[in-house]
């Protein structure tokens, strides 16, 4: 188990390192920091002075290495847009993004898993086909189309919900729904296939042969085993709470990390963008390690299989 | 009074049909209290399907006709509530591959306790004690510690012992063992068979041992039913079946067995192969492979009593008289 956790952690660290390196390279090659900091109209002498002062006259490799180590030590630099530390700018937006992502995740789990379970247990029934068609539609329609559709219905035609921007309950409803709808479909399909994978296993027949009712078999034998198999998907969903809301936040002008990322990229904010990249990769890798450990605790056979 | 006349379990004219393909055709048999019945046949002969169908465990793709009565109560296609009262409590079943027949994520103790709670309403201290007693009874040493093990931490033989313990939890009247030793090493096989026989004697429950192996069945069972292509073609007390097989298929089966005692003789395989269920001959299903085939064999054969506890489905046997 210790070995298992150590290997997962090592992999997580390597992933974050790779992301940081990529961010450092992207930062340095995507624009001249001096021009970005001082503005395109700044005099040539000022720019030259800035270059020397900030080490921009060093060879590119050295500069990238300096950026890389700075990113790793948590020094993300000062955002030229508002003169505040990039980390501060980003972390201010984190709660707002979580305010969308966490309710959306809860809805995905609370609707997707039961829907997929029922579809699997009543395989090939009308209900199954209904759930599966709805999920395909949910998966196939891009997020922004769902969002626009909701805006059209609830904001423009019915006028019951604000179309954008306010971080309060009515303002949350549409972004959260938009985020949840696509995920419900994915989760329902995953649940259905993992439940089907368990239903036909011999041990489920044993459970019926014991004299358990169908409800007991589902609750005690099918669902727990099926969810154990779904941990990786749930981990991915949990890991993308920070990074998965870009489209929806932009669409509803929600002031979270997603819209910050879009503004930062558009304005070539070479400090905020890497900060978001590194932070979301840390969240993603750590939740995945956590989920892997939970799954191994649930099903110790994983420790024996390939590592 | 009537209870004594009624057999423990009677199967009458059972058919199991998988979308037009009949896995079991017109099967009838009775099982008495404390009887040990062996059911022998090749894979696909319907030997397992008939018992799974009786317990409603065969899945929704199959349709079952006929009658299966337990103490006179119809259980074939019965309501779920009836079946959950029968399964585990009155008829328990032990499956072929014990390691996959146990829930991989639950400890073996948990799985036995589940059955004990369900059928005997035990809880707390008595539940622990009974779990350990059952595990010890089936030959798991150090039960207090081993009950926390997961199935993948046990050997196949140990898992089969756990399955048997779980089956005993409901104190059933009938234990159906469906190829219980096929997935196990031959040394373990003998131990599991001994265990089944001992437990059967101790509890007096009826035992149905399903196997493709005549030798396995003959070690444990008083009566043997031989199945071929979905039908019982011969049923006889074990000793008589070995001494004087009547059906040509049974004769062929015995001739194809290696012998350990007695003079060495070449094993004679039965020529041809089992007919596919979708191209079953209209008459006797064994006729195409039978050396003794004559014109009346083109008509379907049914099981007929020829002596006490002996019946056979072969027209030649009657002619020989």
Short recap of the structure:
With 307 residues, chain A is an all-alpha fold. In chain A, 77% of the residues lie in helices and 0% in strands.
Furnish the topology, listing elements before pairings.
The complex is a heterodimer of chains A (about 300) and B (about 325).
Chain A: H1 2-29, H2 33-38, H3 44-53, H4 60-72, H5 86-121, H6 126-140, H7 143-157, H8 169-199, H9 202-209, H10 214-239, H11 246-251, H12 257-266, H13 272-298, H14 301-304
Chain B: H1 2-5, E1 9-18, E2 21-31, E3 36-40, H2 47-54, E4 62-70, E5 73-74, H3 80-86, E6 91-94, H4 98-101, H5 108-120, H6 124-137, H7 143-146, H8 156-168, E7 174-178, H9 186-203, E8 206-211, H10 214-220, E9 223-228, E10 231-237, H11 238-243, H12 248-255, E11 304-307, E12 310-312, H13 315-320
Parallel strand pairs in B: 3-8, 3-9, 6-7, 7-8
Antiparallel strand pairs in B: 1-2, 1-4, 4-5, 9-10, 10-12, 11-12
Helix pairs in contact in B: 5-6, 5-8, 6-8, 8-9
Provide an overview of this structure.
The complex is a heterodimer of chains A (307) and B (321). Chain A has 14 helices and no strands. Chain A has 307 residues and is mainly α. Chain A has two domains: 1-81 and 269-307, no CATH class; 92-266, Orthogonal Bundle (MetI-like fold). The model of chain A has no long low-confidence stretch (mean pLDDT 87). With 321 residues, chain B is of the alpha/beta class. In chain B, 35% of the residues lie in helices and 22% in strands. In chain B, the strands form two sheets. An eight-stranded mixed beta sheet of chain B has the order 6-7-8-3-9-10-12-11, sandwiched between helices. The longest helix of chain B has 18 residues, at 186-203. Chain B is globular, with a radius of gyration of 20 Å. The mean pLDDT of chain B is 90. The interface between A and B is medium-sized, with 23 and 29 residues.
């Amino acid at each position: 188990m210790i070995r298992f956790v150590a290997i997962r952690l090592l992999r997580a660290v390597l992933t974050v390192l790779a992301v940081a390196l990529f961010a450092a390279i992207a930062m340095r090659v995507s624009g001249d920091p001096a021009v970005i900091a001082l503005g395109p109209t700044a005099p040539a002498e000022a720019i030259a002075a800035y270059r020397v002062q900030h080490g921009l006259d060093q060879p590119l490799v050295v500069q990238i290495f300096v950026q890389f180590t700075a990113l790793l030590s948590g020094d993300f630099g000062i955002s030229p847009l508002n003169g505040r530390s990039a980390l501060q700018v980003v972390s201010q937006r984190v709660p707002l993004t979580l305010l969308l992502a966490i309710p959306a995740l809860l809805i995905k789990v609370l609707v997707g898993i039961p829907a997929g379970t029922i579809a699997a247990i009543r395989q090939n029934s009308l209900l199954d086909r209904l759930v599966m068609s709805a999920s395909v539609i949910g998966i196939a329609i891009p997020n922004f189309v769902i969002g626009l559709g909701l805006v059209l219905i609830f904001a423009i035609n019915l006028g019951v919900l604000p179309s954008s921007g306010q971080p309060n309950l009515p303002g949350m409803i549409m972004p959260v729904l938009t985020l949840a709808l696509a995920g419900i479909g994915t989760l329902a399909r995953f649940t259905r296939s993992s439940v089907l994978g368990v239903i036909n296993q011999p041990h489920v027949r044993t459970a019926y042969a014991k004299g358990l009712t169908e409800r007991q078999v589902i609750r005690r034998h099918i669902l727990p085993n099926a969810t154990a198999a779904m941990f990786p998907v749930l981990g991915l969903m949990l890991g993308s709470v920070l990074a998965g809301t870009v489209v929806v936040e932009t669409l509803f002008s929600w002031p979270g990390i997603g819209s910050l990322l879009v503004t930062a990229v558009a304005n070539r904010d070479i400090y905020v963008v890497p900060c978001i990249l590194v932070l979301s990769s840390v969240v993603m890798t750590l939740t995945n390690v956590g989920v892997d450990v939970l799954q191994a605790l649930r099903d110790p056979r994983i420790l024996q299989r390939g590592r | 009074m009537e209870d004594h006349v009624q057999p423990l379990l009677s199967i009458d004219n059972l058919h199991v049909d998988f979308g037009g393909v009949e896995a079991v055709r017109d099967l009838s048999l009775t099982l008495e209290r404390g009887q040990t019945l062996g059911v022998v046949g090749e894979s696909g002969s319907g030997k397992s399907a008939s018992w799974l169908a009786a317990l409603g465990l065969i899945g929704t793709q199959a349709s079952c006709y006929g009658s299966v009565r337990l103490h006179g109560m119809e259980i074939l296609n019965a309501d779920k509530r009836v079946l959950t009262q029968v399964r585990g409590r009155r008829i328990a079943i032990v499956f072929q591959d014990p390691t996959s027949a146990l829930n991989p994520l639950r400890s073996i103790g948990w799985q036995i306790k589940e059955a004990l709670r369900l059928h005997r309403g035990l809880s707390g201290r008595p539940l622990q004690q009974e779990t350990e007693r059952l595990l010890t009874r089936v030959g798991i040493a150090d039960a207090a510690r081993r009950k926390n093990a997961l199935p993948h931490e046990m050997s196949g033989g140990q898992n089969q012992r756990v399955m048997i313990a779980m089956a005993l939890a409901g104190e059933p009247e009938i234990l159906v063992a469906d190829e219980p030793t096929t997935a196990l090493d031959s040394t373990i096989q003998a131990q599991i068979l001994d265990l089944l026989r001992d437990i059967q004697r101790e509890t007096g429950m009826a035992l149905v041992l399903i196997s493709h192996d005549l030798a396995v069945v003959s070690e444990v069972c008083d009566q043997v039913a031989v199945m071929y292509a979905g039908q019982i073609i011969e049923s006889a007390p074990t000793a008589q079946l070995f001494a004087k097989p009547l059906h040509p298929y049974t004769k062929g089966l015995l001739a194809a067995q290696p012998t350990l005692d007695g003079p060495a003789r070449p094993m004679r395989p039965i020529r041809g192969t089992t007919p596919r269920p979708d191209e079953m001959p209209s008459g006797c299903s064994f006729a195409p492979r039978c050396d003794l085939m004559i014109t009346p064999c083109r008509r379907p054969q049914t099981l007929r009593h020829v002596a006490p506890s002996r019946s056979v489905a072969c027209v030649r046997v009657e002619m020989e008289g």
